[in-house]
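Q: I'm writing up a methods section and want to include an example of the input and output format. Could you take the sequence below and give the corresponding predicted structure tokens, formatted cleanly so I can copy it straight into the document?
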Amino acid sequence: MVLSVGVFLPLFFTAIGMGVLASLLGVGGGVFMVPLLTLAGYVPTIQQAAGTSIAGVVFTSISGTIAYALRHAIDFRIGLILMPTTIIGAWCGARLTDVINAHWLSIGFGVLLLYPVAMMIQGKQPKEIGLSLHGEIKGIKLYVVGGLIGLIAGTASGMFGIGGGTVMVPALAVFLGLDIVTAAATSLFVMVPSAMMGTYQHWVQGNVHPELALPLILGLIIGAQIGPRIGPHIPKRRLRQLFGVVLLYAAINMIVKGLR
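A: Here is the clean output for your methods example:
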């Protein structure tokens, strides 16, 4: 399908704004893309919104991973422990979209959005977790806990078309005691192959619209570069609170749409 200029440009410029916000707020682009594609009527089902969104997440994850790798912020050891179950979870999540009724998927995504909404309205980032287990988890317990984190985050990623960082970053901070920057960086690293797996499975199921993913990818990449540059000049707390209200509106709409 060839995308008209009248559709390409609005998606592209909206995605730039989403990329700026994503980099400023510390959330993945998927929490913005899925409501946009669904509520604006670009795709007929939430399954197609999730498939198209996760295709965009692949490229934003790669971009973020490169940036964090250059800063030596990624814990590759933890990342490699999480990666196998995250990939499996992404495949399972994508497969489940063909099994679970679209109305329940819409409700589930709306409920999932309530977590970052609560954080943003408080003026926080979803990754700003004040809790952390003291002491380092070692041995078999590390692999079990890491495997479960990866499986849950990967399933959410594949099912809802998000990067999974909303789940993984707090979990890495709370359960594995990683500092916030390392948790965010490691999450992006882990999500590269899992988002690829989710995209592949959604593609097989016919849920990916590459003509819609392209302007979103281009806009997100540009926006993600702008955000860090303007960040120091913007009161982040107020920005998060404002966007928290916007995201709350999207969450309520997703839930209402699912209940119809």
